[in-house]
Design goal:
Blueprint: H1 20-39, H2 56-68, H3 75-79, H4 110-149, H5 154-165, H6 180-194, H7 203-219, H8 224-239, H9 252-277, H10 303-306, H11 309-315, H12 321-324, H13 331-341, H14 346-363, H15 381-392, H16 397-422, H17 438-444, H18 456-482
Helix pairs in contact: 1-4, 1-5, 2-4, 4-5, 4-6, 4-15, 5-15, 5-16, 6-7, 6-8, 7-8, 7-9, 8-9, 8-14, 13-15, 13-18, 14-15
Length: about 475
């Protein structure tokens, strides 16, 4: 796995990066801009009659219980109808009655734990403000990583991170009470530790990376494959010979320490879940997993049918990433270029994306769910943003202008939808696809309607988009081969 770094010594950037004060100012402004923009979505309704919906009330009730009762038992919160503040209509229960009258939400506890303080201070609004602040921190960290680790200029880094952090789905999940955005922040922390030119990292970086890797399954067991890829990347960086001694001995002591720490974390995870939930996952306490915890994957999964998601996660008319932010399409040639250049950590970055994408394609019950599009891949999108920043910084101003111009369409799309949602004309979960945004209306007709296929034409469009994605990858691959070394 030569992918623990993203810039090899031969390709380390020769231009001087921005000064510390200039970079610090840029990071501070990025945090303020993204946090403020995300916070504008707090007033938008998730559904008619509810500020939050689906799994969101469950996370909030667990956070309330942790803040007030210091446990995960939400039986008293349900009995007292504490959800009335953010869910006007009757709340569908997801829990089953446990011995002693306990009820536990069938969701991992780390997000409620993080939101317990904000909920105690500001209720559901406090929780959403905390998530918006995390979105700002994620954007600032991605800018820092692009500049300091990948050698990207400040302008390309700000352009790439800016348009993606201010548009769907990252900006939407910045105020929806799901673990997606905090998990994305954890992924970004780990990537900041394992990317960049070979060299020493202070112990603080490895502690941060370790906490990020261990935290991911506690946000949701679905993030375990991504955590495994990041754990391998950290192991490589810890064990590989120093760059000043090529061909030197592998460093087994830090590798063994890392393996031991992960083993201990795994034991704690299993023991805690068995003690709290009576199973290896929180799904053991859900009232609708009648066939066992694996029902969350599907009772009779059709993996051949799910293969359409490999492209559909990008191209679906309603739930595809590019339907709402066309600039995500540029990630395809960018990834191909990164693979062609093999610039150090290409394996770590692409491994994170592959793990998340394959999980969303074949393990997730559906891609068309009771949520805003892109939920299943939000956690790994920081890797795609970093690749876009690297790609934009390889060819001067032309790519920066292209990325910023196309990306602005996604920002306008979100602004339009948020304005309609705040005015009560639609919601962010039930009927977001009914937006009157002229950009979305004109663009989406070119995309396949995979949720509700329109006969043979849907599959023609799907085939055409498969060809487009393949063509974009070929162009990215060939373009990378024509670039001079060191660019």
């Amino acid at each position: 796995m030569s992918g623990a770094v993203l810039v090899s010594p031969a390709e380390a950037p020769t231009r001087a990066g921005p000064g510390r004060r200039r970079l610090a100012l840029a990071l501070g402004l990025t945090w303020l801009l993204v946090t403020g923009w995300a916070a504008t979505g707090i007033g938008a309704r998730a559904t008619y009659g509810a500020r939050v919906t689906a799994d969101e009330p469950q996370y909030l009730l667990s956070a309330i219980s942790l803040a007030e009762d210091h446990d995960l038992d939400i039986a008293d919160e349900l009995a007292e109808r504490r959800w009335r503040a953010f869910h006007a209509v009757e709340l569908p229960e997801q829990t089953r009655l446990l011995p002693g009258g306990r009820r536990l939400s069938p969701h991992d506890p780390l997000l409620p734990l993080l939101l317990a303080g904000p909920v105690a201070l500001g209720g559901w609004v406090g929780a959403k403000l905390a998530l918006a602040a995390m979105a700002g921190a994620l954007a600032a960290l991605l800018v820092w990583t692009a500049v300091r680790r990948l050698g990207v200029g400040l302008v390309p880094a700000l352009a790439a991170v800016g348009v993606m952090a201010l548009s769907p789905p990252l900006a939407v999940y910045a105020t929806q009470v799901y673990p997606e955005l905090p998990a994305a922040l954890a992924v970004a922390v780990a990537l900041a530790a394992v990317t960049g030119p070979p060299g020493r990292r202070g112990p603080g970086w490895w502690v941060a990376a370790g906490l990020a890797v261990v935290a991911l399954p506690w946000f949701g067991v679905k993030y375990a494959p991504v955590a495994a890829v990041l754990a391998l990347a950290v192991a490589w960086r810890l064990a590989a010979p120093p760059p000043t001694r090529p061909g030197g001995a592998w460093r087994w002591r830090p590798l063994l320490a890392w393996a031991g720490a992960l083993a201990l974390a795994g034991v704690v995870y299993v023991a805690a879940h068995l003690a709290i939930y009576g199973g290896l996952t929180p799904y053991a306490v859900g009232d609708h997993f009648v066939g066992g915890e694996l029902d969350v994957v599907g009772t009779e999964p059709n993996y051949l049918g799910r293969s359409t998601r490999l492209a559909g996660l990008l191209t679906d008319r309603e739930f595809g990433l590019i339907a709402w932010q066309p600039a995500w399409l540029l990630a395809v040639p960018a990834l191909a270029a990164l693979a062609r250049r093999r610039t150090g950590g290409w394996a770590a970055v692409t491994g994170v994306l592959a793990a998340g994408w394959l999980t969303a394609s074949f393990v997730a019950l559906t891609m068309h769910g009771w949520w805003w599009p892109g939920r299943q891949v939000v956690a790994v999108l920081p890797a795609a943003v970093l690749v876009l920043a690297w790609w934009a910084g390889q060819a001067g101003r032309s790519r920066v202008a292209l990325l910023a111009g196309v990306g602005a369409l996604g920002v306008v799309n979100l602004a339009w939808v948020l304005a309609e949602a705040r005015a009560g004309r639609l919601t962010l979960v039930v009927d977001f696809m009914a937006t009157t945004s002229p950009l979305y209306r004109a663009w989406s007709v070119l995309l396949p309607a995979l949720r509700t296929p329109e006969g043979w034409w849907t599959w023609v469009l799907h085939g055409l988009w498969l060809a487009v994605l393949a063509g974009a990858a070929v162009l990215g691959w060939r373009g990378a081969g024509r670039q001079p070394a060191g660019r």
